[in-house]
Amino acid sequence: MDAPAASSGGTLTATDPSDRLHELVLKSLDDDQAVETVTIPLAGKSSIADHMVIASGRSTRQVASMATKLADRIKTELGRSVRIEGLPTADWVLIDAGDVIVHLFRPEVRSFYNLERMWNFGDAPAPVAAQA
Q1: Model confidence, pTM
Q2: Chain-wide mean pLDDT for the chain?
């Protein structure tokens, strides 16, 4: 894995590469006015990534813009290339940055797929068995 490039004027404070990436993702989405940003910790639950970030944009144009800017910021600040799926239609854009997976949605598409519910396994209280 490449060593992260020094941040150019950014405010990244984490030292772990995964945490730095996660922090950069959240800051970029906040800067671009993402709506309802949620992080789901995956460490210990899945080997695909350490964090999953889900956020919404108000339109396909905003979703596409957030995805493009995020990919550029990750490349510029951390020297990592990302894989992007769904950019042409921008209803649901998946950004695979390695340790952090980002899903950007239009609100209607996000509510239809409801990834938060699917991936929050183990965080809800277990159902209590009835006593006989």
Answers
A1: 0.79
A2: 84
